[in-house]
């Protein structure tokens, strides 16, 4: 059957099974973020229950970040080796068991071990999901499919503070870890029953398979990391991720503790403020990408449009310096929400820098390297924040760092890539 006529046919004749696969990726990403946030939501109360210090909590968070960084370097090769079906199943098996193992932890070391294994497993989600999209969607649909499954990160950040406190208050904190781990296990069973490669799937029509394979063959040239790292454009992205990703990790793991200690919120009381903060983050993610596109449609160069949008997003984070001293809860929530919106808008543009400066066949490698750098930065700030809070008891220095990080990162980006000129990899692409 010819692919071209089918690709041009009406959507209802092509079939929609690929979107069921996309829904599975959305569910996995949502569960991924719920699992990783359970500890952050429960942290203020586990600190009293287990008796850990601020420094020890920093070590617990650092253990997750270290494993996540290692996982980002390793899981892609594992998924390529065993295939998407088995590779994704291995990743979620690890993080499901790790999530439930938190319920057995009774010491700082126990939580560190559970978080480390969780980080290893959860690092496989995005490489596996992106590879699945490449297998199941033609190029013209991949951005939409990726946007859909990636929205699970914000959905998970919103669901966790609503769901986890209810379970913990009703059944105990151990039940919260068991329940979210069970969600992962349920997804795993569904995945193994439902997923096959498109060519092997019994429920996929020939018309939809032809639609999925309607693109010309994609280049498979591999660019070694050593060659990528010779280019300033790569270090532009790496620096941006290293400087600003830690701020997002701080938001995920320390905001519940901040709201509890500074504003006296109970476990159930955390839900609405955290939901408001992460809904604003979702809005910022959309608006940050829209703003750069709007500037380009106005006739601005990509360089000017991208950096102007990044500047607006960076300025949105600056007012967070006042959140540490805000007496009113909702003033603090508004300032933090504006900052999370700024981060997500910033992140949308930073990820786009890779496609601005690198050919498509190198983008995934650049993103992987940058993700590793961001996780390393997150690991460092987790340990530093623990020591800082233990020593000073104040969140002001951390918020000062957050408020200045994005402007510093934008300056570094501009110095390393003043015109966002493309990297020239062609000569070494096959080495």
UniProtKB/TrEMBL annotation:
Domain Major facilitator superfamily (MFS) profile: 21-421
Gene3D superfamilies from the UniProt entry: MFS general substrate transporter like domains
Predominant location category: membrane
Record-annotated membrane-spanning stretches: 57-79, 86-114, 171-194, 234-255, 275-296, 308-324, 330-351, 363-389, 395-417
Keyword line: Membrane, Transmembrane, Transmembrane helix
Pfam families: MFS_1
CDD domains, per database record: MFS_ExuT_GudP_like
Record carries keyword Cell cycle: no
Recorded superkingdom: Bacteria
Compartment(s) where it occurs, according to its Swiss-Prot or TrEMBL record: Membrane
Family: Belongs to the major facilitator superfamily. Phthalate permease family.
Name of the featured protein: MFS transporter
């Amino acid at each position: 059957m010819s692919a071209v006529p089918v690709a041009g046919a009406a959507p209802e004749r092509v079939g929609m099974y690929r979107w069921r696969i996309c829904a599975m990726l959305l569910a996995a990403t949502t569960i991924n973020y719920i699992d990783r946030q359970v500890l952050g939501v429960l942290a203020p109360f586990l600190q009293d229950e287990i008796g850990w210090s601020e420094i020890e909590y920093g070590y617990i968070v650092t253990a997750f970040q270290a494993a996540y960084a290692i996982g980002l370097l390793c899981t892609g090769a594992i998924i390529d080796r065993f295939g998407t079906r088995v590779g994704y199943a291995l990743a979620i098996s690890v993080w499901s068991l790790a999530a439930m193992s938190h319920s057995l932890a009774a010491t700082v070391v126990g939580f560190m071990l559970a978080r480390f294994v969780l980080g290893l497993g959860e690092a496989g989600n995005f490489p596996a999901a992106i590879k699945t999209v490449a297998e199941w969607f033609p190029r013209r649909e991949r951005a939409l499919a990726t946007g859909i499954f990636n929205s699970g990160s914000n959905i998970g950040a919103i669901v966790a503070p609503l769901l986890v406190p209810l379970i913990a208050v009703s059944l105990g904190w151990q039940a919260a870890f068991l329940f979210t781990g069970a969600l992962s296990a349920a997804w795993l069973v569904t995945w193994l029953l439902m997923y096959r490669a498109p060519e092997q799937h019994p429920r996929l029509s020939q018309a939809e398979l032809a639609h999925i394979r309607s693109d010309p063959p994609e280049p498979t040239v591999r660019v070694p990391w050593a060659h990528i790292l010779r280019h300033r454009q790569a270090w532009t992205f790496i620096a941006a991720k290293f400087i600003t990703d830690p701020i997002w990790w701080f938001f995920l793991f320390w905001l519940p503790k901040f709201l509890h200690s500074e504003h006296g919120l109970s476990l159930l009381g955390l839900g609405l403020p955290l939901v408001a903060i992460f809904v604003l983050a979702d809005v910022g993610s959309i608006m940050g990408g829209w703003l750069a596109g709007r500037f380009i449609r106005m006739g601005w160069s990509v360089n000017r449009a991208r950096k102007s949008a990044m500047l607006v997003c960076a300025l949105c984070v600056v007012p967070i310096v006042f959140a540490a001293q805000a007496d009113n809860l909702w003033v603090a929530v508004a300032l933090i929400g504006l900052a999370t919106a700024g981060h997500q808008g910033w992140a949308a543009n930073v990820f786009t820098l890779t496609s601005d400066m690198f050919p498509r066949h190198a983008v995934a490698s650049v993103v992987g390297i940058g993700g590793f750098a961001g996780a390393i930065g997150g690991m460092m700030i987790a340990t530093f924040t623990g020591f800082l809070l233990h020593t000073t008891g104040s969140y002001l220095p951390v918020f000062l760092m957050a408020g200045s990080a994005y402007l510093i990162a934008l300056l570094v980006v501009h110095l390393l890539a003043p015109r966002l000129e493309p990297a020239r990899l062609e000569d070494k692409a096959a080495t």
